[in-house]
């Protein structure tokens, strides 16, 4: 299969389980191909967990789930060394973070200390336990879910951890027709929860390499940096987008271009992905929030004010 056919097969496989969430499927696959991680934020029952499972199964990945609770400890995530009296030595038993696709379910229901147990793995693709560094399997992809922070019993994610996510997405409620389709599928137990693997892990790793080689013209790179700089200089913003955010957006644009069947990035890719890649990296001044400003309005303002470049014909 060609790269285009492989990507289409993965998306079609996901849609065997997920109804009407093509945009979320594409963005989740984009993040996976870019080597990033996704935070899914929405109310309970809209299909966040099902989406993660469908993505994992569609690429034949090892799926691990961490159910975050208030009493969860960092060792419950990373693993623990247990003494073996027969061998008279400690043996390491890896935690659920050691997998290809890791679902961090309801991540904001546990303490910041336990949330931070994911930080090293998400950034370095490795974890350090008892002074030893353990490389995580490749690909390694964390998709965390959280309920909105205004619900009881939740902890806001620290800014350092939010910055580790490439995208912040929201599932949203289905349309009436889509919800009817969900109910209809529930009548057929053979189709509920089933997603056929579309490609192998080796093929996915090849797609990741291909995505990293997608052409990004210098004017597009400059456009990304200008947008990030505009968030830092905006009057309503207390903390703007970091260089990590700029780099993440570029990598996301490369992967998205591949998903759309191109070998080059366009300014339209930047404009489309910027809200998903930047919204969770910005903190507003309290007085700006009191005045009615929102992160979405700031990003809309940034996109309107930053000059959009024109690609040269020979650059693509």
From TrEMBL:
<dbReference type="InterPro" id="IPR027417">
    <property type="entry name" value="P-loop_NTPase"/>
</dbReference>
<dbReference type="Pfam" id="PF17863">
    <property type="entry name" value="AAA_lid_2"/>
</dbReference>
<feature type="domain" description="ChlI/MoxR AAA lid">
    <location>
        <begin position="230"/>
        <end position="299"/>
    </location>
</feature>
<feature type="domain" description="ATPase AAA-3">
    <location>
        <begin position="37"/>
        <end position="167"/>
    </location>
</feature>
<dbReference type="Pfam" id="PF07726">
    <property type="entry name" value="AAA_3"/>
</dbReference>
<dbReference type="InterPro" id="IPR011703">
    <property type="entry name" value="ATPase_AAA-3"/>
</dbReference>
<dbReference type="InterPro" id="IPR050764">
    <property type="entry name" value="CbbQ/NirQ/NorQ/GpvN"/>
</dbReference>
<protein>
    <submittedName>
        <fullName>MoxR family ATPase</fullName>
    </submittedName>
</protein>
<dbReference type="InterPro" id="IPR041628">
    <property type="entry name" value="ChlI/MoxR_AAA_lid"/>
</dbReference>
